[in-house]
Amino acid sequence: MTDTLPLHADNLHKSYGGKPALKGVSVSLKAGEMVALLGPNGAGKSTLLQLLTGLFSPDQGTVVVMGHDMQRHPSRALASLGVVFQQTALDMDLPVMANLLFHTDLHGLPRAVAKQRIEAGLARMGLADQAKTVVRSLSGGTRRKVELVRALLHEPRVLLMDEATVGLDPASRQQLLDTVRGLCAERGMAVLWATHLIEETKVADRLVLLHQGSVRFDGSIEAFMQASQGGDFQTEVLRALEKPGIG
Asked: Which overall architecture, per CATH, does domain 1-80+157-247 show?
């Protein structure tokens, strides 16, 4: 079963200095599915993303990407992952094109293929005229768009977004959401969108509520509302995060 899923994380535990950050978290993504990982700051979202991307190893549990175990075969697993972290990973003093070519070089893409994908990616995000622009001179929203272009250059099957809209204005935030939502449909890509903003989860196929290192709910928004007490979506999310479980 797990081999057929783009991403499957099972029973993940992680502690720092004896303090649990994740307590047996499991999450799976299906092809073409956008899953919203929602939780307040400190819920464990970033820790989960760090384990899913192989930056840290879990104390217990497994992460499998396209059938490849992250701990046993990290290079194979990472080849199918695209990531946009909360903190920018771009070199601020290099032009956009240089940043993107560095990424394609890491993935071993021939230069001709790389440049073709970069040009197409920048055009898609409305950044065709920004290739020679130094990253530091770009707005926060434009930098996020560049990071998304970079994350997609090696055509990953799984895209992880860690609080990717922090600091963006509403228009830029919505454009990023719409673009990622479209990629799910067009490429069959699986997306895990980690956020603390309730309104961002409404476009997702599935909702995962994470609080204090544990999953409080995992299912469709429709199922979540059916199991609720009849309030509006935001009220019910906040209520779910205040009690041991839901549904």
From this structure: 3-Layer(aba) Sandwich (3.40)
